C-alpha cells in the first residue's frame, strides 16, 4: 500500500465492467472511461426531473431487493441510497452491522451467504477497510451487484459522481473551470475519487490545497496543481470543495491544533472573496463548522452543500438502475 494507492490488490475494472463494458459493480471511479461516467451523469439528469415531481417513484427496480451494509457511520450516503432504492420501487433492507451477528463472531462471508439466501440483488457497502467492497464483489453470487459506499481512505465513487453532477449543473462545461479541493486530501476517499472523475471528464484545472502533512506524497502525479497557501490556491477558482479533517483515520498528529488549522485553511467569507465572484462552495459532509468552514460560508449564498445531498439521490438512482442492467425511461 502506498500514499497514492491505498487499495490492496489489482485494479478492479474486469470486476466492475461486463464484457460489453456496462457497469456490473461500482467499486471505484478510477479506470472508468469518460463515456461511462457521462452516461451515469446523463441518466442522473432524467432522475433529477423525477425527484422534482409530485410522484417521485418509478417501477424500474420493482421485485429487486437491495441490502444496505454499513459497517461505518453514515447519514447522507446511507439514507440517500435507501431513498433512491425506494424511489426505484425496490425492497430495501438496511442492516446496522454493529447490531448484526458479525458481532457474535459470524464471518463477513457467512453474513453475505445468508443475505444471498434471501435472494438479494444488490449490496451497498460502506466499510472502514480499503478494498472491502472489492472483496465482497469477488465473493458474491454472480447475479448480485455491489456498490461501494466508501471504503477506508480509498474510494467513494457515488460521492465523486454527485459532486461532478453538482458542478455540471451549477457551473456548466467542466473544461472551462478551475476547481480547488481543500484540506485533508491524504485521508479522503472523496478527494481521491473526485480527482479521478474530474480528470477523466477533462476538467479545466484541479487544484489541491492543504498542509504538506495532509497531502499524499506525489499527489501531483494524479494531475493536480498543488498549493500549500490557501489564499494563493483559491485565487480565481470557480468551485471550492472543502474536506473534513478525517480524525478517525489519523494515527498521530498531522496538524498542530484545530485552531491553527482553521487560521490557515478554514474557509471564511474573506477567503472566499479571493475565488471567482460566482464561485460555488461544496462539502461532502459531515462538515465541522469552525474547523474547516464557517457557518456564514456553509449557509451562505454561494453554498450548494444541501443541493449535493439532493443530487445524491439522482446519482444513486442512476447507478443502481445501471448495475441492474436497466436504463432509465423516466416519464417527462
Ligand atoms: N458524504 C458522506 O459520505 O457522508 P456520510 O458519511 O454521512 O454518508
Please specify the SSE layout and strand pairing.
Layout: H1 13-16, H2 34-51, E1 65-70, H3 76-87, E2 91-96, H4 108-117, E3 122-127, H5 132-139, E4 145-151, H6 157-171, E5 178-182, H7 189-200, E6 205-209, E7 225-227, H8 230-234, E8 239-242, H9 258-265, H10 269-272, E9 280-282, H11 295-298, H12 305-323
Parallel strand pairs: 1-2, 1-3, 3-4, 5-6, 5-8, 6-7, 8-9
Bound molecules: phosphoric acid mono(formamide)ester (CP).
Phosphoric acid mono(formamide)ester is lined by residues 74-78, 150, 159, 284-286.
Q: Quickly name the level 1 CATH class of the largest domain.
A: Alpha Beta
Instruction: State which percent range the strand residues make up.
Output: 5-15%
Measured between the Cα atoms of the first and last residue, the distance is: 47 Å
Q: Strand count, sense and closure of the main sheet?
A: 5 strands, parallel
Q: Would you count the extended β strands for me?
A: 9
Radius of gyration using CA atoms only: 19 Å
Identify low-pLDDT runs.
none
Structural class: alpha/beta
Helix segment tally: 12
Question: What is the chain-wise order of helices and strands?
Answer: HHEHEHEHEHEHEEHEHHEHH
**In the residues, how many domains can be counted?**
2
Indicate the CATH topology of the largest domain.
Answer: Rossmann fold
Bound molecules: phosphoric acid mono(formamide)ester
Give the strand line-up of the largest sheet. 7-6-5-8-9
Amino acid at each position: 500500500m502506498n500514499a497514492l494507492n491505498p487499495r490492496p490488490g489489482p485494479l478492479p475494472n474486469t470486476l466492475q465492467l461486463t464484457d460489453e463494458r456496462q457497469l456490473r459493480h461500482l467499486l471505484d471511479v478510477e479506470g472508468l472511461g469518460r463515456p461511462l461516467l457521462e452516461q451515469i451523469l446523463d441518466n442522473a439528469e432524467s432522475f433529477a426531473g423525477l425527484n422534482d415531481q409530485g410522484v417521485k417513484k418509478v417501477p424500474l427496480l420493482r421485485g429487486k431487493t437491495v441490502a444496505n451494509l454499513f459497517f461505518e457511520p453514515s447519514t447522507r450516503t446511507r439514507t440517500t441510497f435507501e431513498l433512491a432504492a425506494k424511489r426505484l420501487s425496490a425492497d430495501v433492507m438496511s442492516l446496522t452491522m454493529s447490531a448484526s451477528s458479525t458481532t457474535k463472531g459470524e464471518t463477513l462471508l457467512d453474513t453475505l451467504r445468508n443475505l444471498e439466501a434471501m435472494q438479494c440483488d444488490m449490496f451497498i457497502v460502506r466499510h472502514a477497510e480499503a478494498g472491502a467492497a472489492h472483496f465482497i464483489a469477488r465473493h458474491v453470487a454472480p447475479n448480485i451487484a455491489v456498490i461501494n459506499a466508501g471504503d477506508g481512505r480509498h474510494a467513494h465513487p457515488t460521492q465523486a459522481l454527485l459532486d461532478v453532477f453538482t458542478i455540471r449543473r451549477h457551473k456548466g462545461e467542466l473544461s472551462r473551470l478551475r476547481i480547488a479541493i481543500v484540506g485533508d486530501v491524504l485521508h479522503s476517499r472523496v478527494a481521491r475519487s473526485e480527482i479521478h472523475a474530474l480528470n477523466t471528464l477533462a476538467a479545466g484545472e484541479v487544484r489541491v490545497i492543504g498542509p504538506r502533512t495532509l497531502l499524499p506524497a506525489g499527489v501531483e502525479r494524479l494531475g493536480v496543481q498543488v498549493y500549500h497557501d490557501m489564499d494563493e490556491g483559491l485565487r480565481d477558482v470557480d468551485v471550492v470543495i472543502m474536506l473534513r479533517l478525517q480524525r478517525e483515520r489519523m494515527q498521530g498528529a498531522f496538524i498542530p491544533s484545530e485552531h491553527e488549522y482553521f487560521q490557515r485553511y478554514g474557509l471564511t467569507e474573506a477567503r472566499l472573496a479571493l475565488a471567482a465572484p460566482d464561485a460555488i462552495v461544496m462539502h461532502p459532509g459531515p462538515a465541522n463548522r469552525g474547523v474547516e468552514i464557517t457557518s456564514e460560508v456553509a449557509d451562505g449564498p454561494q453554498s450548494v452543500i444541501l443541493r449535493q445531498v439532493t443530487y445524491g439521490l439522482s446519482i444513486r438512482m442512476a447507478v443502481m438502475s445501471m448495475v441492474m442492467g436497466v436504463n432509465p425511461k423516466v416519464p417527462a
